[in-house]
Amino acid sequence: MLEKHSSAGGKVQACQCRRRVVTFFSSPKALFLVLWTLVFASVFWWRTSYVDEVGFSLQLPRVRTGPMFRPVAFNLTDFGAVGDGETLNTDAFESAVAEIAKLGERGGGQLDVPAGLWLTAPFNLTSHMTLFLAEGAVILGVEDERYWPLLPPLPSYGYGREHKGPRYGSLIHGQNLKDVVITGHNGTINGQGQTWWTKYQKKLLNHTRGPLLQLMWSRDVVISNITLRDSPFWTLHPYDCKNVTISNLTILAPVSGAPNTDGIDPDSCEDVVIENCYICTGDDGIAIKSGWDQYGIAYKRPSINILIRNVTVRSVVSAGVSIGSEMSGGVSNVTVENLHVWESKRGLRIKTAAGRGGYVRNIFYRNVTLNHVSIGIVIKIDYNEHADEFFDPKAIPTLESIHFNGIHGQNVDIPVRLNGSKEIPVRDVSFRDMSIGLNYKKKKKNIFRCSFVQGRIIGTIFPAPCANLDIYDGWGRLVKRSVLPKKRNIGYSFL
């Protein structure tokens, strides 16, 4: 009887247990809890790599210094590099690039540079390559110029920019490349230019200084999310390149004592975007070029289709954005928009001279802010620095179709200086929506000055324009015809 009683009691308990289970699983909250537990367990099982005699060990995925942009990635340390700031790692960089060069048909390769100070002599990149600088990674250029190779002079310049004959190469260099990416988590390329600047000023160098980063005759280039600083010479120099995107760069050099450290110099380039950058250097923030005098004329490679937007520049000794003076191959179809220039000698500048030849046309400036700038807008046609004595003084540049819209600022000493000449007039210039607050601490006279300039004012601008320009109302109706001056006398020598 006792056994039967126990058996009956067990059946009752089993039935009650089944009811509880059914009731439990009929609850939405309970189902969610079960599913969540299963998902967690599956993830835990997936992350578990092996079980040994002690128990289990959880092996995490390998951490990379950057996201994968290529099918194969290498770490610089795989090639014996040491990031102590003292060991010379040129061989490691060159070996890594050589391995990536073998992978072109597979989509190329990526070289990850981890955090550390990676001293190196100049090295070349290859096609289908991504150079990725992790946060805290600094590529340091060796200071001894004996490690820097000598290259032939640029064909559109005739000879080295500072000395006849060969020129020093760049710290990071490439020629005839395709599909090159230089990016990172704001890692740094540092040219350690102080030694170069001192030797240049003391005339101790026998060759033209090299840029920090130079790509020549290349296409499909992306340079983004890194810091470039203390270049020996021009900082970033794309030369005769096509389809170049430069984005989210910080470019730095001392504002004085760092000669010719332009930020970005697109030179005889086509289809270029420069955007979202901060530039503070010892020369022009951005300078668009296309060759020098007769050599640039013969090379026949213009800079064309260039967009500059969302850029902040500080240039105490030069200009925020310049065109020229080396523009002998021509410059056209340039748009500069959403530009902020502060604490600079000049805001926007176009510079050329007789002997340059070439042209500057179809230039559009929109939404430009000038704060604490000595001279807001400058066109200068007597920048008489020539490649050699064989330039042709009859090679006259053409300046036309240059348009300013939405130019605003405060604490500007001199807002506008447009200096044409009888031989080199400036044609088809327009101003619309301009209001520049002046620095009234200095006596002002003829604050908007023009010479041999033809163009128009659309709507109302401040300060009042020069008499050379036609006045139109906001609906495009002529209000007042210009009065052309008979004399060329702008009266300045510091533009």
TrEMBL record:
SUPFAM superfamilies: Pectin lyase-like. Pfam families: Glyco_hydro_28. The chain crosses the membrane at residues 21-46. Keywords: Glycosidase, Hydrolase, Membrane, Transmembrane, Transmembrane helix. It comes from the Eukaryota. Gene3D superfamilies: Single-stranded right-handed beta-helix, Pectin lyase-like. InterPro entries: GH28_Enzymes, Glyco_hydro_28, PbH1, Pectin_lyas_fold, Pectin_lyase_fold/virulence. GO terms for biological process: carbohydrate metabolic process. One of its GO terms (molecular function) is polygalacturonase activity. Belongs to the glycosyl hydrolase 28 family. This is Polygalacturonase. It comes from Musa acuminata subsp. malaccensis.
